Amino acid sequence: MRRPGPDSPQHGGLRARLAVERPGFRLDVALEVAAGEVVALLGPNGAGKTTALRALAGLTPLTGGSIELDGRALHTLPAERRPVGVVFQDYLLFPHLSALDNVAFGPRCQGASRAEARRAAAELLERVGLAGHASARPRRLSGGQAQRVALARALAVRPRLLLLDEPLAALDAHTRLEIRSGLRRHLADFDGATVLVTHDPLDAMVLADRLIVIEDGAVVQQGTAAEVARRPRTRYVARLVGLNLYRGAADGPEVTVEGVVFSVTERLHGPVFVAFSPAAVALYRSRPDGSPRNLWRARIDGIERYGDNIRVHLDGPITASADVTPAAVADLGLSAGQEIWAAVKATETHAYPA
Amino acid sequence: MRAHPGPRLRYGARRTGRAVTGRPPWMLLVPALAGTAFLVLPLAGLLVRAPWSTLPERLAQPQVLQALRLSLVTATVATGVCLLLGVPLAWLLARTSFPGRRLLRALITVPLVLPPVVGGVALLLVLGRRGLLGSWLESAFGVTLPFTTAGVVVAEAFVAMPFLVISVEGALRAADPRFEEAAATLGASRWTVFRRVTLPLIAPGVAAGAVLCWARALGEFGATITFAGNFPGTTQTMPLAVYLALETDPEAAVVLSLVLLAVSVLILAGLRERWVSRV
Amino acid sequence: MTLKSLSRRAACVASAAAALVLTAACGSAGAGPAEPQAGARTLTVFAAASLTGTFTELGRAFEAAHPDITVRFNFGSSATLAQQIVQGAPADVFAAASPATMKTVTDASLAGPPVTFARNRLQIAVPAGNPAGIDALEDLADAEVKVALCAAQVPCGAAAARALEAAGVEVTPVTLEQDVKATLTKVVLGEVDAALVYVTDVRASGGEVEGIDFPEAARAVNDYPIAVLSTAPAGQAAQRFVDAVRSAQGRDVLARAGFEVPGP
After folding, report:
1. Partner of C89 for a Cys bridge, out of A85, B83, C84, C160, CB 3.0 to 4.6 A?
2. d(CA A41, CA A75)
3. Which of A177, A188, A40, A171 is nearest to A127 (CA)?
4. Which superkingdom (chain C) (predicted)?
5. C198 Rama sector, left if φ>0, alpha if ψ -120 to 50, beta otherwise
6. Looking at beta carbons, which residues of chain B come within 8 Å of C185?
């Protein structure tokens, strides 16, 4: 995307294997983030994203693995000695300090004089567009302003690794849009490695060069946003990108999933994924004529509004979502519990090796 | 790791004065009023019985001012000692874990439970002239604590410190430790974290603890008279003067009590005013 | 516990208390002076703290002799006890450590004529072994010697002041204790080199302190008056207790404790 980080170790960046084991929970993920690259850790709640971030920051001890940043071992250092900047989910700005002193806190701890630290802090606040709020206490700041102060504070320690934990989650939808583009710009200016934790696919796609999807403490998929969106490998990812996803067995142009046979455009053999968009699903009250392929009997599990359309949740041999127009719902007289026929066009399906 | 994003800080949200949910329920109001009466009526009793006509003349007596000054000085110094020793102790209890921590916490409350006179005897057994530490203090440094103003401070600090430790520990437990983590990621050592983040965050709790501690020290009687003795000018604080006045001249005791009350209420109200306007 | 059950409980306690008051009232109304009282009666004795040992012993003997009477003691500083009686405390007998405190009660017309039943004399108390080498009252004037006295407001302090004045000795004590027991504690713990306390206190310490007699003590003897209170709920039993204190057996108990006992 922007500045593809070269992979060679002399150019630095983060190389880590994080293992954290606790009763009932185990995280074991490998991460590589080049200097200048932004990687998003994406995953459902409880997947271990925040634990991974805390382990990188030194706030949660590793039970195994190692962390190397710019060729130096990081995991042997306590949190306060790591060249790492963290933006916490709810920012954790010190309530008793002004915005300026919050940002100056890091440089002061690193040995700068009060005047130097404040000068550096003022510059950073200026850069995030908050020069006018330097003397404000955190509780006088709006959510978006607090987020930018938190970013400035994390950058003030001149980190080589920037960690952001759900940086936009605490914001309302409108502020989010504005802050997201600002954050994207600041991340582009940052020359160290950046790891961003989020459960919002949009944040991940806009802000990150690469996504790493974590489920149950392990990496399930990684790649660019386009790659991940096009070829989801878990139900969770498929739902994130809005696709119906199935695992089946391919035999040439046909893929069988739970007894339902799909015609696909690809020629594959063995275990594969089949994905298609809910908009590609058509619903019928009675069995349509023609090919029995790509057709199955389903029961309506639920109906909800989805943007301008209606999303129909289907149960049956396979569970699926179908997006139809409100007019179609009225014409077909759809209601929950009803048995109907569902079909998808072969050209709208996408199969790839599992 | 937290399964759900924790309660979020609301930036920009101002604290509102009170909830607008109508009248307080009787079940709370009646006991609250009874409680107020219970606490305030004895004070009214003192006011009614006060010999108002001879009041100015009694107050002008040098012993009264002497005892009052000694009380204020010793209670304040004792509070300082408690802060110096008690805040780190509270931090240890709240932020670290070590074997015997629960036992230590229980031991710290001992002065609360111990009758103060017994506390005074216990102090004598340790810091007295023949005490475990006291004999060494005397032979090595020529320092004796009993019957000195320093002894009064020791007795008051002994009795008052638990109040400080308990409130500060409570404040520490209530404070969000993630602020301390945030400070650590900014390069702050544990000491810097404590000084520049933890302490300011728990300042209201420390202040409340210090007020309790000061008030307890000001009213201290049993441990003081047992450990430090009673001699006007050096160890006779207001409560001791009140107690002895009660033996022969109850009216004088009432006057002395009123003086102690008035001064402490004035000081506490004054301090509160300052904190409230500062926050 | 719910608030409701709490209030019910409170109501029970209140009605029980009311019932007690009622029975007590009926009991005293029904009992004529000539009739022997049926059932046990309680006699409440307010006594100076220095009488704790002797009066406890006397009380036990009295109960043995009068099975229908239970003796209840309230020991404390004579001045405090006098205040309590003036404020309406339900006592039958008052035994004070000084005529002055008894006077508070008689002045309020709350007691019959008091009689002196014991005398107490001061001694110099020193820690076991007498580390400061005290042997006379003059030694207490030495600036090196740490002395504890009772505060002038309490009887032992007043007596000490009289004795020192009689001897012409000026002492600068390190502390003026609130009562004689506290003064003695300072000697027992070795915090002071000497103190002026009563013979009875030295004797009661069981060898932990040594007592040294001094001639001027004779000038500061403390009289212990006893009186039946005019409001005495237990009436005749109160007088019988006073008689028991002044009986040969009572005098013997007091003398063993170190009191001087005046002739009958």
Report:
1. C84
2. 20
3. A188
4. Bacteria
5. beta
6. 121, 226
Give burial (CB, 10 Å; 0-12/13-18/19+) of A33: buried
- Number of Cβ within a 10 Å radius of residue A140: 15
Touching B: A residues 76-135, CB under 8 Å:
78-82, 84-86, 88-92, 94-97, 105-106, 109-110
Q: What is the CATH number of domain A13-238?
A: 3.40.50.300
* Residues C209 and C132 occupy one common structural domain: yes
**In chain A, where are the structural domains located?**
13-238, 242-353
Comparing alpha-carbon positions, the chain B residue that sits nearest to C176 is B230
Pick the CATH number of A242-353 from 1.10.3470.10, 2.40.50.100, 3.90.1720.10, 3.30.420.140: 2.40.50.100
Q: Would an 8 Å CB–CB cutoff place C146 in contact with chain B? A: yes
ipTM summary value: 0.81
Q: What is the pTM of this model?
A: 0.76
pLDDT tens digit sequence for B161-192? 999 999 999 999 999 999 999 999 999 999 99
User: At how many degrees (to 10) do helices B62-95 and B101-108 cross?
Assistant: 170
Of C77, C178, C191, the CB nearest to B146: C191
- What does the alpha-carbon distance between residue C46 and residue C90 come to, in Å, rounded to a whole number? 10
C78 is in an annotated binding site: yes
pLDDT band with cut points at 50, 70 and 90 for residue B21: low
* pLDDT (tens digit per residue) in A161-202: 999 999 988 888 888 888 898 999 999 999 999 999 988 888
Q: What is the 3-state secondary structure (H, E, C) of chain A?
A: CCCCCCCCHHHCEEEEEEEEEECCEEEEEEEEEECCCEEEEECCCCCCHHHHHHHHHCCCCCCEEEEEECCEECCCCCHHHCCEEEECCCCCCCCCCCHHHHHHHHHHHCCCCHHHHHHHHHHHHHHCCCHHHCCCCHHHCCHHHHHHHHHHHHHCCCCCEEEEECCCCCCCHHHHHHHHHHHHHHHHHCCCEEEEEECCHHHHHHHCCEEEEEECCEEEEEECHHHHHHCCCCHHHHHHHCCEEEEEEEEEEEEEECCEEEEEEEEEEEEEEEEECHHHEEEECCCCCCCCCCEEEEEEEEEEEECCEEEEEEECCCCEEEEECHHHHHHHCCCCCCEEEEEECHHHCEEEEC
What are the Cα distances from residue C153, in Å, to A11, A88, B19, C107, C157? 88, 68, 55, 19, 7
Identify the helix (H) or strand (E) that includes residue B143: none
Could you tell me the two tokens for A119?
Answer: 């000068």
Query: What is the extent of the structural domain holding C128?
Result: 122-219
Residues of A within 8 A of B196 (CB-CB) are: 105
Say how far apart CA B39 and CA B242 lie, in whole Å: 20
Alpha-carbon gap, residue C189 to B226, rounded angstroms: 11
Domain contains C29: no
3-32 of B, contacting A, C-beta below 8 A: 3-6, 8-9, 11-14
With contact defined as beta carbons under 8 Å apart, do A56 and A33 qualify?
no
Q: Over the Cα atoms of chain A, what is R_g? A: 24
Could you tell me which of A329, A342, A327, A344 has the C-alpha nearest to residue A286? A342
Token digits of residue A211: 């996504």
Number of domains in chain C: 2
**Range scoring the smallest mean pLDDT among A144-148, A291-295, B176-180:** A291-295
Domains of chain B and CATH, by start = 52-168+201-278 (1.10.3720.10)
CA angle B66/B71/B76 to nearest 5° reads 130
| Integer-rounded Cα radius of gyration of chain B | 23
C198 marked as binding residue? yes
